[in-house]
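Q: A reviewer asked whether we had any structural model of the full assembly, not just the individual parts. We don't, so I'm hoping you can provide one. Inputs are below.
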Amino acid sequence: MAAEVQPLATLKLPTVVSPITAEQRYWKSFKNQKSHTSTAAWPISHISFPGSSNGSAASHSLVAAAKANDLFAVTSGPRVDIFSIRKRELLKTIGRFDSEAHSGEIRADGRVLVAGEDSGKMQVFDVGTGTRAVILKTWHTHKQPVWVTKWSPAELTTLMSCSDDKTVRLWDLPSNGPTHMFSGHQDYVRSGAFMPDRNNLLVSGSYDSTVRVWDARAPGGSVLTFKHADPIEEVLPLPGGTTLLAATGSAISVLDLVAAKPLRLITNHQKTVTTLSLASNGRRVVSGSLDGHVKVFETTNWNVVAGSKYPSPILSLSVISAGAGHEDRHLAVGMQSGVLSLRTRLSGATAEKARARATEDKLMVEGATSKLAKIDSAKAKRKRNAASNKSMALLGENVDVIIPTDATNSAGGRKRRVKLKPWQRDFREGRYASCLDAVLDFSSPEYQPVTALSVLVALRHRSALREALEGRDEVTVLPLLKWVIKYISDPRYSTVCVDVAFQLFDIYSEYVGGSTELADQFAVMTGKVSREVEKAQMAIITNGMVESLMIGGAEASA
Amino acid sequence: MVELRNPRKASKATKMEANGETASLKKRKREPKEETTTTTTTASQKRQRSKPQTTQPAANGTADDTLNSHESSTLFENKDQQTTNGDLELTDASNDLTTRNTSAWKVSNPMGGRMLDIDPIFSLDERFLLVTYNTSIQVYSTDDSLLVRRIAVPVTKLDSGAELSSPHIVASALSASSPDFLWVACSDGRIWHLNWTTGEGAETPFTIDVKKVLDMTLEAVDIRDKQEDVLFILQKLTKSSAQIVAYDLKGLQKKTGKLIHTYDENPQLLRSAAGGRLIVAAAKETLHIGTLKSKGKTVKAVDDLEYAFHSFGVPDLVTCVDIRPTLHTTKKGGVEIQAVDLVIGGARGAIYVYGDLLSKLPGNNTKAGPIQPRKLHWHRRAVHSVKWSEDGNYLISGGAETVLVLWQLDTGKREFLPHLSATIENIVVSPKGSSYALHLDDNSTMVLSTAEMKPTTYISGIQSLVLSDKPSKESLVRRVWKSVDDISTPLITTSNPTNPSQIFLCVGNGQQASSTGSAPSTPLLQVFDVSSFQGVNKHAIARTNPTDANMTSQGAPIVEPRVTKMAFSHDGKWLASVDEWQPPERDLEPLLTGSKNTCQVSRERREIYLKFWEVEAEDSSLQLVSRINEAHFTTEAETILDVVSDPVSSRFASLGTDGVVRFWSPKLRRKDGLASTGPEGQQLRTWSCSRAVELPAYGQLEEAVEVSPKSPRSGALAFSEDGSVLFAAYGPSSGAAVAVIDTATGAIRDTISNLTRGMIRGVEALSSSLIILSEELTVYDIVSDEVQYSFALKETSAVAKQMTHLAVNRESRSFAVAAPIPNSNQDKLKKGAKSELVVFSLDDEMPQLIQTFPQVITAVLPATNSAGFVAVDSAAQVWSITESGEQAQMLQPLADINMEESASAVAPTNLAVEDGEASDEEMQDADEDVEMEDDDYDVHQAVVAPQKLAEIFNAAPAFAMAPIEDIFYQVAGLFSTRPSTI
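A: Here is a predicted structure for the entire assembly that you could use as a starting point for your response.
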């Protein structure tokens, strides 16, 4: 019959589509940009770091492995710079090139580096020792610029090269000549790669607009050729080894090697796509283009999930991973202007937190916590019962039968009365102004915007909004104004905020002359609202344009 | 597209003619089709229904109506003269219920009703509670809260309907000399002398000639050394004067009474005490105290009663009075009043206690100084009732704060029993002082034991709004709000398809609390069991504040939401409800901008929620699953016109004033891609819009009519019986169209226009027919694409249009239409308005039943699993309309039927164990004793007052204590007897 007092229920806000997706948040978290301008502002043509696929398998010593994981190479002009991943600092510069260098690549064990050159020379340097690089090997076989030199992911001594002489060659480190030579391209070969997990397969992309797959076991021509409309700037095999990406002009084509057919053409860039890189353990692909955009694609439907803009055409980029889980660490972007931009994702403590949350989530999904909570509550109940029985025992020295207090409670099914918080008591007892002050206290540990919203909505329902807003001085009205300004643009808060703002203007506009703070805040609010209005108008205009386009399209198709 | 009515087909669509007063449809026969065209004008009008010129016949109709209103016979002669005001409103002045049966339909006796603001009465042994309802006296057993007897009191007479203030019961009192009898006074001067143990006496009231009876009290006066009932009746003389007249039984028969006192003030209340030795009459701010002058002398007849009256002013408007006389026996053996303590409750919240009042009164009419009362002020609003406790140490008061306050007079301390469900209307202390009876404004009465303050008896009736007879005590003082005194919105009811005995009603926190806004607020869902006729439980389905202060600091009431639509899914597992709230206009002054008025601003801030509830199978409790904030939205939240459920799947459809039909279906609730489960591992669901179908705007259908986008729209939805098609009628009043929507694809298959006239009030689908109720009732066959028949309803007020109901019973393939009878004197539905209900069978255009009801019908719903209807009226009564061929009652046997049956079964054994009843022999049928004798000690816990135990144990000091065995038997005896008989 008599209803129990319940504290004011917190509103449950609708889950709106957040303007920022989790993916975008992830890529936004690459912060702490560090720019490094190359010597004489040579364009950064290539960024690479030791392939992670077999690094551990081939490591000779722990020190070397650790060191190997810590290096990446940046090629710009006639130099190759070697950076530390951890410290983001330049460690060493290799400048022993006669002309422009290409494709400086560190071997998976981090000990040697190979680079091609415009002169057609290919050189292998020792990385580890000293500040001055030692040339270990030089090949002069190519007569035209060598654009691609890459270490085989499977064998430490095998590498490949692609050259403007329209050939792709396979090399063995000790020997003086190429072990294989693949010819068939009609134009410069500017990109190439080993197929992962398939030791004998190579892929190359050429300015003759073809992507060709070569098999070391099958001499002669290519085993597979994909013809595109535009020159191929970059090829990137995906980890599975069945899918291949090729940057062709401003598009990226997705090729299926097993079915031998193109899957998709991604046309999100406006200008030539110059570089592609894997990220997030192969679940994302990052592309860079001459239009200065970096775009992140997911690899199932190839939708753009994030992106950012750089001030200069992008020539090279790489998502550098590190650590045991090969988590993305840096987003390194090399630009035409010679600037290397390094954006780093905070790891360590934050990563730790995120991991803890993930495990908690997982447990929650599995229901482990509910079990845990059950156990906890059972334990607590036992303790309570014991305590109450103990107190009863103390009380009843000469009593024969002890009736525990809990029996009545459990029989009635009545729960212990909820203790109201101070602001809830204020609300219940009609001290609305102090209640509102309490929930708007930004410094309070219990501050939550939704609590304040709940109180304001309840005040409106109880026709007490004005009563709660009236009679404030400059100090007590400002938090309210700031709160309104902060949330007036949130669609879930705006209706209430608008009402509160109206009331505040109505009550306090006469004091604006006397208080600069108040005047400032009112001005800020006006500015924010007018910006929102502008946005809304823009949206309406856009909507109108789209609608007219749609109608036009429908008519055209009809 | 549908050009329905070529002339030949149209002729089929005959119209019933209209008559506001006496037309009868009984004798009408269906005429051959050729004859329907005799009156050419009407026939052509019928044919041209498809053209938008239906306004002209309406004008004709009103003319005909005025001409023919008293010439029913001529109407019957040329019955096919198709006056468009062919109505469904037929009245008859002869008896209570006008029934014109063409077939086997019949209407049951009403059940339920509204408890009046009259103190409930305990029987002397406290085993029964007599509650005065607006149309009946109901006797309840206090042991098990069951209805023992319902004595219908024929208060409302249909022929007196023209009077603006219709008669109502003003007082009831238990006879002091013979406790089986009850006196009931009606405002028009009828006095019933009822035997409440048998129900006799309801047909033969005494009648006295008065203008208006205001109040009545009853005392057992010693007349010729014999106790006889004397009625003191406060009757109205002029607007501001009244007289008190005493009647005894003979006087009532002769219609002559003894005039005791006349005073020229606004009379309010009359109370008496101590065997007629004291009378207290309250005017607005004055009390008149009358003391019996005939001291010592024996009173030989009523005419010998002489009173000395004193009057004095009180500081507030009197809302309630309680007298506590202390009697003492004189040496001669006579009885005298020793002292009188008086307490009055004020309309402004204060309680005034006059201790030992008589000694302060002036001796012989000489004007004494002001009498100073003691003031107790806790109540914020009017004190609705204040009573002395049995021992005089406490006062018990209650009011709109829903708090029972116990004042300890010596210390001035207060104790509270807070958060009762509604305004406390009446408090009665039982004859033995062991319990209090509280009558609350939510049509419930409870008996609380004084020791534990726990309810031992709870009676809860249908809580729907009623048209009350007397203004509330709140309205004695001017308030910042105005309460509603008419019924403007239909009662939202529905029945659970899985539980035919329960109906669900949307109600407010009591009559007064819910009628404070512009429209009644109904945040609660009352589950009412019609088989036991008890409220089962109440759920808050919209925001409500039972434990918080129910008014603002400015004194305005807090407006709660109003549930506007409700529907169960076909399997009864889901309930969809729509509630609306808009801020009161008084709050919105600072928000006015530009040229907007407060009404628009308030509209912009409307909160309209569509909620989906999961219904627990066992106790029909509800759990909110999803709340859709703005289900229909344009630039502001749009009204949801209708919500219907798919008859074959868990799916709802809603229609809003934005002209969109939305389908709602459940889906598994997911969190991060995984199905989320409840605490018991059950799968959780959530509701979302699965499809939105935009209805074609009216302007696109017919270029001829320009409709401004702001004109109000009306609409309704109906699923076909197999759920494959949804009919959506929607449009402005100038012309709405019915869209036929394929529920599988959402495509609009068809659009039928010109089936309606005016606002759409209801659409139902029954087999291949579509029944549309607007200002016309049209039955349209979808398959043959023609109107089967059509009647025009009489023009009524806007409110009456709201109160038109359409209900379809699929079992009997019939449908019922109910509407208030047009009354040109009333533009609002107030007291005295009547309704008519007409039952049609689908195949026959002749009504199966035309029934006039003495009250406005606020809801009609089809009975679940049976071929009938249930109607709820504005007196909170429930009527069942059944096809009498059907054996099974549509409702489960109502309480009194139930009683009769079980009585005959158990009666013999009961008579044997009968005890404590004064007149065993008279109770041949013994029906009312069944429940109380059917006692179960395991169930009814004995309530033992602590003082009784103390009496046993403290009877003597420990050394002189009775043997332990004796004490044991005393204690056992205490616990084994029922508390009421201690």
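A: Points you may want to mention in the reply: The radius of gyration of chain B is 31 Å. Chain B touches chain A through 36 residues (CB under 8 Å).
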